[in-house]
Amino acid sequence: MAERGDTLWGLAANLTGNGNNWKKFGYNGRPENLQIGQVVNVSKLYGSGSGVTITPVSTKLDTRESEQFVTNPNGNKMLVDDYFKSIETAYYYISTDYANRAFKYEWTGKSVSLEFKKKVIQISFLLAVKPDDLMAVMAFESTLDHTKWNGPVAVGLIQFTTDAEAIVGKTRNQLAKMTAIQQLDYVAIYLSYWTNARGRLKNLGDLYMAVFCPAGIGKSDNFILYENGKSGYSGNSKLDRTNKGYITRGDALQMVLERRSLYLK
Questions:
Q1: Single pTM value for the model
Q2: Domains of the chain with CATH codes
Q3: Which of 86-95, 109-118, 189-198 has the highest mean pLDDT?
Q4: Residue 100's CB: how many other CB atoms inside 10 A?
Q5: What is the DSSP letter of 227?
Q6: What pLDDT digit, counting tens, does each position of 154-170 carry?
Q7: Which of 49, 116, 170, 184 has a C-alpha 20 to 30 A away from that of 193?
Q8: SS3 content of the chain, % helix, strand, coil (to 5)
C-alpha cells in the first residue's frame, strides 16, 4: 500500500535493489499518478526463475500458544494472528538459490543458517526493507547471536528490552530460550509495530532507529537523539565520538555501517 512520499521507482529499488524494475509491477496507470493508499501488486517482480514463489502460505508462528497477545499502535492487545492479518502479512516460499544470492554481505554468526536467511528475507518482504539492512541491525545489536545478553537489560537478535516486552508479549527470559528461527517472529512483530506506528521504515537508518531510538524514525541524520545531562546519553556516550555533548541519528547509524562493513563478501 502506497504511503506519502512513495514512488514506484523507490518501492522497486527498496524491494529489488533496482528502481527500474518498477515496470514489472504491472501498474496500469502513469507512474506519477500513484496515490496514497493505493495497493501495488509486487508479485510480478518475482517471475519464473527468480527463486521466489508468490503463493501465500500460513503465517503461523513457530511458538504457538492458545492466548498469545501483542500490543498494537493504539495500545490495545490483540491476538498475534490477528495482528499479522491487520498489517496484510504474506509470507512466501524462498528457494535455497535465492537465499544465497539475495545478500550482498557474507552474514555469519551463531544464529545464521540457511533457514535463518530465508526467514530474514520473508520478514524483509513483509516490512518492505532490504534483507541486508535487517541483518546489519541484528549484527550490530547482537553479532547475530539470539542468546546474547547485554547484562540483565537486553537480550536477543535486536536486544529486546522491557519496552520491547510490552510490544511483543514475551519476557526477555522467554525470548532468550527460543531458537533463532522462533525469535525472528518476534523481531517481525516488534518492527511491524513501529511500521504501523510511524510508517514504513524506508532505509537502514529508520530500521535501526526502530530498535535504538524510535524518536529518530523518519528524521534526518542531524536529528539529536540524546543530549548530555538528559536520559539516554550516558549509557550511549560512546556514540558521541567527538564529544559534542549530544548524539545524532547519524552518530548511531555510523556504528551500524562500520559493523556491516565487517561482513563484506
A1: 0.72
A2: 1-45 (no CATH), 51-261 (1.10.530)
A3: 109-118
A4: 12
A5: E
A6: 999 999 999 999 999 99
A7: 116
A8: 45, 10, 40
Helix (H, G, I), strand (E, B) or coil at 98: helix
Q: How far apart are CA 22 and CA 34, in angstroms?
A: 12
Q: Are 42 and 15 in contact (CB under 8 A)?
A: yes
Helix (H, G, I), strand (E, B) or coil at 225: strand
What lies within 8 Å, CB to CB, of 200 at 6+ separation is 3, 6, 127, 128
Please give the backbone phi and psi of residue 258, each rounded to the nearest 5 degrees, phi first: -65, -40
Within the chain, residue ranges assigned H as helices are 8-16, 80-86, 96-101, 114-127, 131-142, 162-168, 172-176, 180-198, 204-212, 249-261
Residue 86, all three cell numbers: 491487520
Does the structure show a pLDDT above 60 at 218? Answer: yes
